[in-house]
Specification:
Layout lengths: L1 E2 L11 H14 L15 E6 L2 E5 L8 E5 L2 H4 L8 H11 L13 H13 L6 E2 L11 E2 L8 E5 L2 H18 L6 E5 L8 H5 L19 E3 L13 H17 L3 E6 L3 E2 L5 E2 L2 H13 L3 E5 L13 H5 L5 E4 L11 E5 L1 H7 L17 H16 L2 H16 L8 E6 L4 E5 L5 H10 L2 E2 L6 E4 L7 H19 L2
Parallel strand pairs: 4-18, 8-9, 8-10, 10-13, 13-14
Antiparallel strand pairs: 1-4, 2-3, 3-4, 5-6, 7-15, 11-12, 14-15, 16-17, 17-19
Helix pairs in contact: 3-11, 4-11, 5-10, 7-8, 12-14, 13-14
Length: 476
């Protein structure tokens, strides 16, 4: 970790004040996935710029240091920090209004954002290309009724999944064919709200404590690892056989099929074949079950195609997006759906989708999100993602020879060192920070999802820090 004057600090706090704030935080502030009584050590973030965060170390808050953010603030700050275009959008919108209710009112930022999302959505140009394993189908025509034409703005990724699940249940309830259950694959993660928890992995996920309270869904086996696996791979064939049999046994009660296409994020950074996603899509379509793609983590270029759906060659009935939607500036997500789903959900007697967050369509955040999408349209992110992928593949490769490491893999701007044991997260994070990189390992994974704007030297530094930390903590 290096001392820094590169990141401007609007107002440097005195050491005594930082110590007071850290003490109050430790006593009273509840952080994600943490104990209120045994809190983890928190570094004090002072400012951020580019791909770096300016920190005051918890053990020495009189010192100012900087670290490359290898996490892109939980995968959302794809443009980095202090982005002039996003800053300008926020300031301009504040001159008009920060917020008005979306019930009975509408406004330009939300309308413009919806317009841009529809234009960028999978299948928006009438075709969608598949780039999966040999023998998989390629691009195919997408009819108007299959395109994603309706946008519901939500507060967070978890809420967008809630809305998607409610829409699927309501679609069947109002078309006279009520169904109770969702079908998904093991290993998934879709959020922390109640409905979203029910389609997360029921055993290895974070929500097993709620077993018996959550709705009971149907879980097919986790697909075998490997994006390039062919459909006739014996393990893929076995997975498909078991999955089809489970679906057939419960088909009459399956309202929807939900998955994170190609890459399961918080479930362990598990990458799998697009063919398996196509199998799930085929089962859903043949059964009139609503097909939901959760692209909250995978969307906007993260896995090497603009949507993971592009690699699969399928347009879902419902698409959930979030995280990178606002470039990491504020919380907002969206559910996009096809016209036939909108018609079914809007049928009488309900006549409306029964959901309406207070801050739905917040003008300030919608303006920032619109500016973020403008950046993605102006500067194609995929060449940058490919550059990051190449850098991660090279810099993480040395870890593959460690006895402590089970696998090293990359997919787009995602790099993973998977261990043979649970990661000693605090130790790995501390050592990485000593080498100038902020990382937050979990489960058995030491991983990075850096901002797309990370330069080759930044990516190399991330890889070197992760490899060194894993080697020193878990052994070579």
């Amino acid at each position: 970790m290096t001392d820094s004057a590169a990141i401007p600090a609007p107002s440097a706090l005195p050491e005594e004040e930082v110590r007071r704030l850290l003490a109050f935080d430790r006593a009273h502030v509840w952080h994600p996935y943490s104990s209120a009584l045994r809190p983890s050590v928190m570094q004090f973030a002072e400012s951020a710029s580019g791909v770096r965060i300016r920190l005051r170390p918890a053990d020495d808050p009189g010192r100012t240091v900087e670290a490359i953010d290898a996490m892109a603030s939980w995968w959302c700050a794809i443009h980095g920090y202090g982005v002039p275009e996003l800053d300008a959008a926020a300031r301009q919108q504040l001159d008009a209004m920060g917020h008005v209710m979306f019930g009975g009112l509408t406004h330009a930022p939300a309308i413009s954002l919806a317009e841009k999302l529809i234009a960028l959505a999978p299948g928006a140009n009438g075709t969608i290309g598949g780039t999966g394993a040999a023998g998989d189908p390629g691009a195919h025509d997408v009819g108007d009724d299959e395109t994603l034409q309706h946008v519901f703005l939500a507060d967070s990724g978890s809420v967008s999944v809630e809305v998607a699940l409610k829409a699927a249940w309501q679609y069947h309830a109002l078309t006279g064919r009520p169904r109770r259950r969702m079908f998904t694959i093991r290993g998934g993660y879709h959020g922390d709200t109640f409905g979203a928890m029910s389609v997360c992995d029921p055993v290895g996920g974070m929500h097993s404590l709620f077993t018996g309270v959550l709705p009971e869904q149907l879980f097919a086996p986790r697909p075998p690892a490997g994006v390039d696996r062919a459909p006739d791979d014996p393990e893929i064939v076995a997975w498909e056989t078991e999955t089809r049999a489970l679906f057939a046994a419960h088909a009459d009660d399956i309202a929807g099929v939900i998955c994170e296409p190609v890459l399961q994020g918080a479930g362990g950074m598990h990458a799998y074949s697009p063919h398996c996603v196509r199998v799930l899509a085929e089962l859903a379509r043949a059964n009139d079950s609503v097909l939901i793609f959760d692209e909250i983590a995978t969307g906007f270029g993260r896995t090497g195609t603009f949507w993971a759906a592009d690699r699969v060659g399928v347009v879902p009935d419902i698409l959930c997006v979030g995280k990178a939607l606002t470039g990491g500036y504020a919380t907002m997500a969206a559910m996009l759906c096809a016209p036939r789903i909108a018609r079914g959900v809007s049928a009488e007697p309900a006549g409306a989708l029964m959901h309406g967050p207070t801050f739905m369509g917040n003008p300030l955040v919608a303006a920032i999100a619109g500016a973020s999408l403008d950046l993605l349209r102006r500067d194609d992110p995929l060449p940058r993602v490919a550059r990051v992928e190449g850098g991660l593949r090279e810099s993480l490769a040395p870890a593959a020879g460690f006895a402590s490491v089970a696998d090293v893999r990359t997919l787009g701007a995602v790099g993973v060192i998977q261990l043979r044991e649970p990661v000693r997260a605090a130790e790995v994070a501390a050592l990485a920070l000593d080498h100038g990189v902020w990382v937050r390992p979990f489960r058995d994974c030491v991983y990075t999802m850096p901002p797309f704007v990370a330069e080759p030297d930044d990516v190399a530094a991330i890889g070197a820090a992760l490899v060194t930390a894993v080697g020193e903590v878990h052994g070579r």
